[in-house]
């Protein structure tokens, strides 16, 4: 296998962006309080690659998508909603429909936000009316307790209630870029003292290293014994990032999918029968330099070893995504609001 070349990446700023218009500043949380991840500008998000990505992602939008993003901002302004609400709506729309007013979807899902008439979102003609759909999204968002303090993707999930709650974070840089460009939002980062993605990953790796030599026990998650997913879960928990138990669930919902060739230390590496993402049976913590740390199998102990393939190594890794350090977001049941 080709050796992976990785490095810990310090999160960079969103300086000097242009594109859809002149970028004035990035959207940030309200001031006057201690800053958390949910109050940071998008460039300080967990992936370490947001510098320039907002502009790049925005440049791929179709004319229809740009107009819908503009309309989301216009209606938000008309209703006197803060820029964070506009960003949340844009991230939700991009995730659900690529910011297009579509007339198809899962079951009876329709429109920009894939609202389901059968779940009380409105009639088919209503949820496919752009202005109605945007206003309805804002109506439901305003009913979410504490939405202003959440990371935008988390707030989008509270409205959409997707079975894949972390996917809304992917479009955070793009949404922040569009909001700042179209909304002329003056902002600040205010988050320079928060741990970067590399620091969080380093904390997870440090915890896992401290478990070397502890025996494998199926279903165990410490402190004295671990199985594979118990080790990775508790390692990231020690970094203040909550991820689910079980290797399959960690692959599906543990964070953002990244190509294996772009793996960074702290990412979760998976094995599945025939490289099938639906047949995941093992997970390990990537260390860099083609090494992993894992709890192998019964009769063995937590160890550090070279990464192997065996025809089962999945081509995507998972990068856990924090909302706020040390807190776990309580997610509603999947599909409850759809």
TrEMBL record:
<feature type="domain" description="NlpC/P60">
    <location>
        <begin position="198"/>
        <end position="325"/>
    </location>
</feature>
<dbReference type="InterPro" id="IPR038765">
    <property type="entry name" value="Papain-like_cys_pep_sf"/>
</dbReference>
<dbReference type="InterPro" id="IPR051794">
    <property type="entry name" value="PG_Endopeptidase_C40"/>
</dbReference>
<dbReference type="Pfam" id="PF00877">
    <property type="entry name" value="NLPC_P60"/>
</dbReference>
<protein>
    <submittedName>
        <fullName>C40 family peptidase</fullName>
    </submittedName>
</protein>
<comment type="similarity">
    <text>Belongs to the peptidase C40 family.</text>
</comment>
<keyword id="KW-0645">Protease</keyword>
<keyword id="KW-0788">Thiol protease</keyword>
<dbReference type="InterPro" id="IPR000064">
    <property type="entry name" value="NLP_P60_dom"/>
</dbReference>
<keyword id="KW-0378">Hydrolase</keyword>
